[in-house]
Amino acid sequence: KIDNESATLRVKAPLNVVMNEGGDPHRVLARNAACHQCRRRKLKCDAVRPTCGNCRKPRQRGPEKYEPPETCTWDETRDPSARTLRKREAKAARGISNGRPPSSNPPIWANGSTSLTALPMFQHQVLHPQPGVSMLDPRVQSDADYYRLYNGGGMPPSMIAPIRQPSLSTDLLDTSLPSAHLPPFSPHGITNNIHWSEPHPPVSHMGGPSSYPQHQFIAPTPIATFPVHDTPPLQLNPSVSQIMYSDWPRDLPQPETVHHMVEVFFARVRVLPHMFHRPSFLANLSLPPSNHEFPTLALLHGILAVTAPYIPPQSLASRAYFPIGSSTEAYVHPEYDFTPRSALLPASSLVTFTPESIGDGSPLHRFQMWHRRKSYECLSQLVTNGVQLVQAVQAVLCATWVDVKNGWWSDVWVESGNAVRMSLPLHLNLSSSAMSDPLSHNIGAILREASSELEQAQRDRTWWVVYLTERAAATGSLWPNAIADDDITVELPIARHIFDSGVGELVGVQTFQSPDFYSHHPPQHRDTLSMYIKVTRVMSDVLTFMRKYSRGLHTFQRFFSDPRFQQVFTDIGTLRSSMPEEFKTSTTNTPHGPVVDPDKYTMIDLLHCALITIGGPLITHQSWMLPQARHILREIRHVVSNYLELAATSYDITQLSVHSSFIWFSAARNLIRFIHCAARSESVQAQMELPAFEADLKQLLGALNRLGERFPVALRYAKVLE
């Protein structure tokens, strides 16, 4: 005879729950779902993780009664077979035909840790959820428990705001995903249909104080005189919100997250987006992963890794940014592979792995290191198979810029050199319009000829990003360059508006061998990227001169009479005097008003930095008052004034290029020399100038600390100065 309570339970129990004679429900486990210890002892296992009921009992563990239970070991989770998937689809089809709507949430018994007796408590939690508390772990009873267990006691719950939903009325570009796009079970709660309007509060980021004001996510960011809300928000692609291809890679987040981060990549990341034709790339990203036009996994992982600093940490900590292969019980981003590593290991000649132990375990570090490592693993397969080699070079560049922003200069040196070495056999550094010499003994290019001018233009732009990246590695040191300028014959990239149109003449006309390279700027090359390349070449010549000049004894006569110094100084003057008017200011006039161009700002400051660097030997106790040294002081104050003008606006300083950290460091380092000279001098002028020097140095240190909230390399520069 069955009492009413047992009968009620029997009616409500799912198919995989069976009643025993005592009325207690127990589940029929799937094959090999029991732990290894119970299977070895021939015991019935309840499959409760991490330690099952049998293994909690002292008599099952051994003679030690008070010995703490050991964690059970389990079989690795495997994907369901094709037969199981067909059965599930057939069952869902029968349910739909019977009028039952398909269930989007898995049963609460699917993870093997919730019994039927927990059903009333689970229903109560669903009806009365607590914000920020996960429903999946029975150890979590409050927000404090959640952050104690899964966030290392880090951010308090009061510092985390719900994620907003963007709408047509949203005035700002938010780089966090809306809560409606999160999985049903996430650390943000399960009430995902609420429309939040509060902005993100400040949170701790990369070990220092940080805030993510909403105006920093505007592309481009207006200055104070231009209203913020006039800039339209960046819209996610609605065509991918309901699509999940069956062959979507398990190491990537869900497609909507990838599309969103690619949009942020084009809007926020500096230099790297110049390699791609944005409409073509976004169109290829919407294809199935099995399509040969779909971007390679190495490139996608690299893009995600380099874009991570522009995503708020609380968003990176959500399950929306986890790989789709993550366990349903995971509360932090995974650090290790889901399956044993392939026998095809990354080639040592292509990869330098920075130890992951140097990170702080933050969501940014976990996300960035995961995709950086995956990018190199996929890159090894591309190089081994000899396919998609141009995208392989682009993937190396994306991963290298992760190390640039973190200040890992040894890795940057090796990886940027690898990018150059990979480009040379592809003839990316050579002009596509030059006639081949039949008497030449050079081996032909590995790549086939470009099928269109647009493809050739993308190859040319990829090379110039390789050049900028390799020269950036030299700014952090005085190590030699990987390739000489004489070996580069490819034309400068075409202007951006012509390249984006995809029609017309897409190959440039000016090269490094042009006699008027610094004095003439053709209309098809009159854009920020081409001018940035010219300034970078001048800066590279300055560093090369300083590296070779420093091998001997310094004297003023030897310094000024050196023909290399005279040539570099002439090139700087020629480029500065011929610079078009629109490139002498960091703002650009648009129909909505003046906006800041970060690349143009960096290019202007880098030209000042070239003069500051080459004039460093002139700042001594005997010569710091000479006109030549005072000219260097004026260049330093130009850098400081440019920063103060930008800081006085609503522009977010952390949106600048990471190269600004080196420029400010060079200006501050030479300013410290002036401070030492003025402190030792007893003249009245020196004592009057000393407070101004110290005030300028304080501004540069503040700029480095502000930029360091997003890029750790700036904090390292600030530490060196201090």
Automatic annotation (TrEMBL):
Transmembrane segments annotated in the record for this chain: none
Localization annotation: Nucleus
Biological process annotations from GO: DNA-templated transcription
Region Disordered, residue ranges: 88-108
GO molecular function: DNA binding; DNA-binding transcription factor activity, RNA polymerase II-specific; zinc ion binding
PROSITE patterns: ZN2_CY6_FUNGAL_2
Keyword set, alphabetical order: Metal-binding, Nucleus, Transcription, Transcription regulation
Residues of the Zn(2)-C6 fungal-type domain: 34-74
A single cellular component GO annotation: nucleus
Protein known as: Zn(2)-C6 fungal-type domain-containing protein
Species of origin: Cutaneotrichosporon oleaginosum
